[in-house]
Design brief:
The chain contains ten helices and eleven strands. It is α/β, with parallel strands linked by helices. Strands 1, 2, 3, 4, 5, 6, 7, 8 and 9 form a nine-stranded mixed sheet that branches. A two-stranded antiparallel sheet has the order 10-11.
Length: about 325
C-alpha cells in the first residue's frame, strides 16, 4: 500500500520566533517520509509575511500564505486546510521540531480507513535546561506538551492535541474546519480546546471515526522562561477552564468532559500522593508538585464555572468553516453554545 500524501501546516504570528520557525520547517524537510508540501500561514503580520516570503521564495515545496480569516490559530489552520493538497493534513507548532519519523508514524495510522485523525507525543524543551522541580508532569498540557496520565503506545482517544496532530482530509469534509471563538485569537489569555471541539464534532458527524495518538510520532516543543513560572501555570489553568466551559456548552458536558473526569478522579489524585510521598522522603519539589496540582484543579474549576455562566448568558456561537472556504466564518455553519 502506498504512503498517503501529507501536507504540513505551520501557523506563525510573530518575528520573535524567527529561529524557531526556521527550525520547525527544517525538521519537516528532514522527514524520512517527505511531506508533499509545507504551508506557513502568517497571522496578520505583514513584516513577518514579507520576511518569510523572501526566505522561502526559492524553496520548494514550502509555501507562505496569509491567514485569510480573522486573527487567531483556528482561522490560520483553516486557511492551511483550504490551500493544502495532501490526503492527510498535519499540524506542527511554530516553536517545535519534529523527529525524523514523525510523518511516517502518522501515515502508518491511516492504513485503517476508519482512522480520521492521528496525534503524537509532544516533549518539552525547558528554557532553563530542566523541568522546574515544582512543575507536575500531570500538568504538562499547560505548556502544550503530552501530560502524565495519557496511555502509552498507539491508542484510541477522544481528541488529539492540535500542535502535534494530523487529520484525513475527509474529516474536514464531514465536520468542517476549526471553530473560531474558542482557541487563541489574539486575546491575551492563553485559551485552547479548539481541537477538542473539532474532534467531538467529527465523531458526531462520523460515528465510525477512529482517532488515535501514537506516542512514536514525537515532536519537541520549546517552553519559554516565562512559562516556567507559577503565574503562567495558574493563568493557563484558568484559561483552560474557560475554554472547557465553552466546549461543554457547545457539545454537551457528557462528551465535552469525558476525558477530564478520568483525569481529575484518577490521574491527579495519584499525582498528589506521589508528591506528598516525595516530600516525606525529602525529595526536591514533592510538596510543590502536590500543591501545584491542587492549585491547578481549583483554578481550572473556577474558570470553568465562570465560563459556564458567561456561556449561558451570552449564548456563545462558534463559526465553523466548511472545507473550501479558507480562513474565517464566511459562509460557515454556526455551532451554538
Amino acid at each position: 500500500m502506498s504512503e498517503p500524501d501529507i501536507s504540513v501546516v505551520i501557523c506563525v504570528y510573530t518575528e520573535d520566533r524567527w529561529e524557531d520557525i526556521l527550525a520547525a520547517v527544517s525538521s519537516v524537510r528532514a522527514q524520512s517520509l517527505p511531506a508533499l508540501e509545507t504551508l506557513l500561514v502568517v497571522d496578520h503580520n505583514a513584516t513577518l509575511l514579507e520576511r518569510l516570503t523572501r526566505e522561502y521564495k526559492e524553496t520548494d515545496p514550502v509555501r507562505v500564505l496569509v491567514n485569510s480569516g480573522p486573527r487567531g490559530l483556528s482561522a490560520g489552520r483553516n486557511t492551511g486546510i483550504a490551500a493544502s493538497r495532501g490526503e492527510i493534513i498535519a499540524f506542527l507548532d511554530d516553536d517545535a521540531v519534529a523527529e525524523r519519523d514523525w510523518l511516517r508514524h502518522f501515515a502508518e495510522g491511516y492504513a485503517d480507513p476508519r482512522v480520521m485523525a492521528v496525534g503524537g507525543r509532544t516533549m518539552p524543551i525547558w528554557a532553563s535546561g530542566r523541568r522546574p522541580v515544582w512543575f507536575p508532569e500531570e500538568f504538562d498540557w499547560v505548556v502544550g506538551c503530552t501530560y502524565k496520565g495519557l496511555p502509552p503506545g498507539r491508542v484510541r482517544v477522544r481528541n488529539v492535541l492540535g500542535g502535534n496532530a494530523s487529520f484525513r482530509r475527509t474529516a474536514f469534509d464531514a465536520a468542517g474546519g476549526f471553530a473560531t471563538g474558542i482557541g487563541r485569537d489574539g486575546d491575551s489569555r492563553p485559551l485552547g480546546c479548539e481541537e477538542t471541539e473539532l474532534c467531538i464534532r467529527l465523531t458526531r458527524a462520523r460515528p465510525d471515526a477512529v482517532l488515535l495518538i501514537d506516542d512514536r510520532a514525537v515532536i519537541h516543543h520549546r517552553v519559554p522562561e516565562v512559562r516556567e513560572h507559577f503565574r503562567y501555570f495558574r493563568t493557563r489553568a484558568y484559561a483552560e477552564g474557560l475554554s472547557k466551559a465553552l466546549v461543554a456548552r457547545s457539545v454537551g458536558a457528557g462528551k465535552g468532559l469525558e476525558s477530564e473526569r478520568r483525569y481529575t478522579t484518577r490521574v491527579l489524585p495519584a499525582g498528589v500522593l506521589r508528591g506528598l510521598r516525595d516530600a516525606a522522603l525529602a525529595r526536591p519539589g514533592g510538596a510543590g508538585r502536590a500543591g501545584a496540582i491542587v492549585a491547578g484543579v481549583l483554578t481550572a474549576a473556577g474558570g470553568y464555572v465562570l465560563g459556564s455562566v458567561r456561556a449561558r448568558r451570552g449564548g456563545a456561537v462558534f463559526p465553523v468553516v466548511p472545507v473550501g472556504t479558507a480562513g474565517g466564518a464566511r459562509g460557515g455553519e454556526e455551532v451554538a453554545a
